[in-house]
Write a structure and sequence with these properties.
Layout (H helix, E strand, L loop, with lengths): L1 H11 L3 H16 L7 H8 L12 H12 L6 H10 L2 H26 L2 E2 L5 E2 L2 H9 L2 H35 L3 H16 L2 H30 L4 H13 L6 H4 L7 H16 L5 H6 L7 H33 L12 H6 L5 H32 L4 H17 L3 H24 L9
Antiparallel strand pairs: 1-2
């Protein structure tokens, strides 16, 4: 089964999905007249509460919940593998995917707020499933979206993140995977049982602190490697457009070179980390206090900016400057550990990176639990939420101690089918989406 799924994912994520998602990103960038130019306004709105509007949580809390789900191990491991397999040019394509993906994120979050509902207990619920059902009249397609969202929540949102935490803690401090798995399940369980308000409160504290902690460490490394910054920019841009192989001194034997490989792995990893086009951000946006869909769409759009345009780009620069300065430092590391190699030369570097990865993974566990919860609520009703939460907590423990080769392949496969209904909805309802005033 792993071999079959791997072959299918190699095809789906090799050409069709990157082209489809990248094409949608370009379309909405044009359709919305370069909505990305309003990123400054989006950031200002994110810290300016819309207190007179209806909603469950603040716009910033909805943004934090989205960032919690998207800023995960992909920002570290994903960038490492992109550079290893596609060369430094992959960083440019990853960055460009985030820049253009902001338009798609705006579009899906606009529809998420536009078609949201107020439930009997006076809370808001929304997302692509409601836009598909009410805007398109295709309930069967909405059901498919929720089904794949539910599976994805147990996979990339739960099991893979839990495993990343236990492996990191075991490597750094030698603690038992079983004990760590139980502790993670308890901590995350206590947070998610409180619903979106509890999740929002935790995320507004956790996301900014973990983000600044990681960025501060990366900036410190870039200051140390400042003599190689200009050369790193040159290599990244050159490798993105010109077919060239990296020298053995720089790559340490890893694969590199060619616009095809750089674009393929850069776009694929960018799409994985920012989730623009999957529709998950729209689920969180629907619960925000906002007076107009465009306001929250702008705020939520900034999640893609922070996640990919900033975080992934800086991680990429850290990796490339380290490769240039210390080409021999990557000896003994796998291609997925280039970031670890870049942090190793600084004092407590491995510990700092490990703490960042743990924080990112816990945030993803929290954020994705809410996405899966809303999918379950749509499919089976609000009474099924507690059962879902219990299963999610159990899967945190199971994922923390199991081999995840099959889970990763299944999740990659499911993510593609989660994106397709959302993309169909975006294109079908494109005339409903307006730009900010």
């Amino acid at each position: 089964m792993i071999e079959i799924l791997s072959a299918l994912n190699g095809f789906i994520w090799g050409i069709p999905m990157p082209i489809l998602l990248f094409g949608v990103h370009i379309y909405f960038t044009i359709h919305l007249k370069g909505i990305q130019k309003h990123i400054g306004k989006a950031i200002r709105l994110s810290v300016k509460p819309d207190t007179k509007a209806d909603g469950d949580i603040s716009g910033f809390a909805a943004l934090a919940a989205t960032l919690a789900a998207t800023i995960g191990t992909g920002n570290i491991v994903g960038v490492s593998t992109a550079v290893a397999l596609g060369g430094p040019g992959a960083i440019f394509w990853c960055w460009l995917t985030g820049l253009l993906g902001m338009a798609t994120s705006y579009a899906e979050c606009f529809l998420g707020v536009l078609y949201r509902r107020k439930t009997e207990d006076q809370t808001f619920i929304g997302g692509p499933m409601y836009a598909i059902e009410e805007g398109m009249g295709k309930k069967w397609l909405a059901v498919l979206f929720c089904f794949f969202t539910l599976i994805a929540s147990y996979g990339v949102g739960c099991s893979t993140q839990a495993r990343a935490i236990t492996e990191t803690i075991k490597t750094l401090w030698g603690f038992s995977e079983y004990i760590v798995g139980i502790l993670i399940a308890i901590v995350v369980g206590l947070i998610i049982v409180g619903g979106i308000k509890s999740i929002g409160n935790i995320c507004t504290k956790l996301v900014p602190s973990m983000g600044f902690f990681y960025l501060f460490a990366c900036i410190a490394i870039l200051i140390i490697n400042h003599d190689y910054l200009l050369e790193a920019f040159y290599i990244i841009l050159r490798s993105a457009f010109l077919p060239s192989k990296l020298t053995a001194a720089v790559t340490g034997g890893f694969i590199g070179g060619g616009i095809k490989l750089a674009a393929r792995y850069g776009i694929a990893r960018g799409l994985f980390t920012n989730e623009a086009g999957l529709g998950s951000a729209a689920i969180a946006a629907a619960g925000a206090k906002t007076s107009h869909p465009s306001r929250q769409a702008l705020i939520s759009m900034s999640a893609t900016f922070w996640d990919t345009v900033v975080m992934c780009a800086i991680t990429g620069l850290v990796i490339v400057t380290n490769l240039l300065k210390n080409p021999s430092s990557i000896e003994g590391y796998s291609m997925a550990e280039l970031t670890t190699a870049a942090f190793a030369p600084i004092p407590f570097g491995r510990t700092i990176l490990g703490i960042s990865l743990i924080a990112f993974a816990i945030a993803t566990l929290i954020g994705w639990s809410y996405f899966g919860e809303k999918a379950v609520e749509y499919l089976f009703g609000k009474s099924s939420i507690n059962t879902y939460r219990l299963c999610y907590i159990v899967m945190i423990f199971v994922g923390s101690v199991m081999s995840l080769s099959l889970v990763w392949e299944l999740t990659d496969f499911v993510n593609a089918f989660m994106a397709i209904p959302n993309l169909i909805c975006l294109l079908a309802l494109r005339k409903k989406i307006t730009t900010c005033k």
